[in-house]
Amino acid sequence: MIATGVDPRCVSEEDPQPVHRVDFRDENGAGDEWRLVAADDVHEALRWAQVHAAGRTASICAEFTYVGRGERTVALIRLAGPDPA
């Protein structure tokens, strides 16, 4: 990991209520995916995942939508847990 200082003025937008995605995987690789809307913050999403994990591994991502090359794209940024791919 490399940590560098940043200028907070360089942020042009912020999403006050981001959508979180939780991807559960069991020992056989079977997946169960959930979309969390209106969570207070990532800590609430993490707590929800812990409560519902039922022995499975959980990956938490932030979901964001952007328009690039004229197309609407939904992308994920992994925040915690293993790569869900």
Tag the structure with descriptive keywords:
4-stranded antiparallel beta sheet; 85 residues; mainly beta; 13% helix
Care to describe what's here?
The chain has 85 residues and is mainly beta. The chain has one domain (17-80). Helix content is 13%, strand content 41%. The chain has one helix and four strands, in the order E-E-H-E-E. It has one helix at residues 42-52; strands spanning 19-25, 31-36, 57-68, 71-80. A four-stranded antiparallel sheet has the order 2-1-3-4. Strand 3 and strand 4 form a beta hairpin. The longest helix has 11 residues, at 42-52. The two termini are 22 Å apart.
- What percent of residues adopt helix (DSSP H or I)? 10-25%
Q: Multimeric state of these chains?
A: single chain
Can you write the helix and strand succession as a string? EEHEE
Tell me the β content: 35-45%
What Rg do the Cα atoms give? 15 Å
What is the tally of helical segments? 1
| Biggest beta-sheet profile | 4 strands, antiparallel
List unreliable stretches of 5+ residues: none
The number of distinct β-strands equals 4
Structural class: mainly beta
| Amino- and carboxy-terminal Cα gap | 22 Å
Strand order of the main beta sheet, please?
Answer: 2-1-3-4
Average predicted confidence as pLDDT: 92
When the domains are counted, the total is: 1
The shape is: globular
